[in-house]
Amino acid sequence: MSDIAFLFPGQGSQAVGMGKALAETWPVARQVFEEADEALGFPISRLCFEGPEEELRLTENTQPALLTVSIAALRVLEQEGFRPSFVAGHSLGEYSALVAAGSLAFRDAVRLVRNRGRYMQEAVPPGVGAMAAVLRPPMDGLEQILAEAAQGEVVTAANFNSPEQVVIAGHAGAVARASEMLKAAGARRVVPLPVSAPFHCPLMLPAQQRLKTDLDATAFADLAVPLVNNVDARVVTTGAEARDGLHRQVSGAVRWTDSMRALAALGVRRAVEVGAGAVLCG
Fold first, then answer.
1. Residue 168 dihedral angles phi and psi, to the nearest 5°
2. Are 260 and 160 in contact (CB under 8 A)?
3. With a cut of 50, which residues of the chain have pLDDT below it?
4. Domain boundaries, the chain
5. Which of 9, 222, 5, 209 is nearest to 104 (CA)?
6. Would you state the CATH architecture of domain 4-123+202-273?
7. In sequence order, which residues have a C-beta less than 8 Å from that of residue 147 and are 6 or more positions away?
């Protein structure tokens, strides 16, 4: 199975009820939820299975919930004999990928992303930031348009999700200006995203600095399965590289398009999305 990659989703794939069927059907999946509940000191499993949705949507809950569902699904795949040659994860999903690669212990990962979610939420006051998805963006002029729209504020490309979609993030006013300029430059559509903070942009630097302390205090082993990381879209094999990538991706762009191209160049022909929903594979 040398041509298979496991891909792990990030925020946006959550839904009340996620993981419930897995836990009811597979004891190995149920054990993952029990471990998460113990590590966090509260029943994240109940939040996944029953909600309420407004609590599940809180970033500090969403991140550990999605990680737990992904690892529960991973353990089932592993029990059935499936092994990837490479792993990758979209934003938050990189933590799941590193658990799958044997670099990061699940208990450590679920605590890290709980803190990560809180730090990211607290980095920017509500209403100050925004994000928007740009469909069929004018890639040749994207950076120049964003620079002109900033006007002393922050607006940058946050997620390069595909050649057909880029997400921008920053101050709400700058994102609004950039949205209008991108539409005028030929973007098919610009869709404001219902997010609680402007992720993967320089406004997240306070969260990145806070998270560094937690990352530095956490053990990262060298990877048993290579990872293609978000911030560089390159292969990572050491624990030190993995930790550094998680630190830099908080305020850095998710280079998902380049990551998928890198996997294809490495010989990957099949991808399995491991987690809630089908965001990455469509």
1. -110, 155
2. no
3. 1
4. 4-123+202-273, 129-192
5. 222
6. 3-Layer(aba) Sandwich (3.40)
7. none
The residue to which tokens 């903070």 are assigned? 197
Active site residues: 91, 200
> Do residues 137 and 166 make contact, with C-beta atoms less than 8 angstroms apart?
yes
Contact of 37 with 107, CB cutoff 8 Å: no
| CATH number of the domain located at residue range(s) 129-192 in this protein | 3.30.70.250
3-state DSSP helix/strand/coil % of the chain, to nearest 5: 50, 15, 35
- For residue 21, give both structure tokens: 């069927």
Question: What pLDDT digit, counting tens, does each position of 9-27 carry?
Answer: 998 878 999 999 999 999 9
d(CA 257, CA 176): 24
Q: Determine whether 202 is exposed, middle or buried from the number of CB atoms within 10 Å of its CB (0-12, 13-18, 19+).
A: middle
DSSP character at residue 249: T
